[in-house]
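Sequence and structure are kept together here, with a separate record for every protein. An example record follows, reproduced without changes.
>
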Amino acid sequence: MKRIAAAFFAGMVFGIGLAISGMTDPNVVLGFLDVAGAWDPALAFVMLGAVGTTTLLFRLVLRRGRPVFDPDFHFSMSRALDRRLVVGAGAFGVGWGLSGYCPGPVLVGAAAGMWTALVFVPAMIAGAWLQRRMTRIAPVTPGRRQTE
């Protein structure tokens, strides 16, 4: 129960931060990507804040030896830059660039009742379902674990 409460609290803080920073508005993201037009640097400042916070606190958190509500830290040990990673990152980037949404902000936007987010979320869920389905069908390559 503590893990669920901690995850809920962390999600709420993240969602509030997204809303305050304006990152739930896809026009802010699209403005950042429009480097040849009316460029909006707001997303760059949000990214700098996130990277700065992570840089300062990540090692401090790891010194604990284990998370507060879990027996172990969960990291991907894979260092492979393979076709699946590149294609998946490319598809994510194209989708983000076309819509201005990525998973966190679109969920906050949907919770706020933004109609574009409400349209996007079912498509995102369908894409996640399709990925899981394709991962189950695809053979496991050496050095890579099959997902559940």
